[in-house]
Amino acid sequence: YTYPGSLTTPPCDETVTWIVLAKAHTASQGQLDRVKAIFAEPQNNRPLQPLYGRVVNKNIGGIRVSPVGGGSGNGGPSSGNAISATIGSTDRRRRSSWTYVLPSEWAASYPECGGRQQSPIDIVKSDAVTTIQNKDLFSAMTFFGVSGEVQNTGHGLQVNGKFTSIEVVGTTYNALQYHLHFPSEHAFDGQLSEGE
């Protein structure tokens, strides 16, 4: 699934094309325990935002995912239900000037957080528009067993590394980090999962 949206943390820039994979991945208790050892209370999800007429596409066409630097692992990251990738042009988050306690107040300091293309959203599967090129993006992705640097940002866990690249309409984007959210930020048919 894909839709136009925003960063899910301040400054909430509306410069993101979200790609949300619905295929479930599991995490072992040991993996979850390691996450909690780094970030003990990982409840760090933004409430669902209104769709405001945006279209959610299913099985997008025109996106090719290819490995970076060769490799063949399909080890896949662990999550509760959905994996998300964002394609955006900014990462200017102010790490110490906001919290998850009152995300409804973010717009007072970060006006774009009150915009009409905010993320995350509830993805209603029956409302998603299937694109002309019905391609299962998940089956085209290759994840590597590369080591990543895990950081506790104070708002959640961020993993830095070079994981894959995504080509969108002739432009290549490198996946250099991902963030863990507990519970998930996006919902499917009104249901949040354990993590994203």
Fold and architecture overview:
- The model is unreliable at about 65-95 (pLDDT under 50).
- This protein has about 200 residues and is mainly beta.
- The strands form four sheets. Strands 4, 8, 9 and 10 form a four-stranded antiparallel β-sheet that branches. A three-stranded antiparallel β-sheet has the order 1-2-5, with no helix packed on it.
- It contains three helices and eleven strands; from the N terminus they run E-E-H-E-E-E-H-E-E-H-E-E-E-E.
- The chain is globular.
- The chain has helices at about 30-40, 105-110, 135-140; strands at about 1-5, 15-20, 55-60, 65, 85, 120-125, 130, 150, 155-170, 170-180, 185-190.
- A hairpin with a 4-residue loop joins strand 8 (about 150) and strand 9.
Produce a short descriptive summary.
By secondary structure, this protein is mainly beta. The protein has helices at 29-38, 106-109, 137-140, and strands at residues 2-5, 16-21, 57-58, 63-66, 83-87, 122-123, 129-130, 149-152, 157-168, 171-180, 187-188. It is 9% helix and 27% strand.
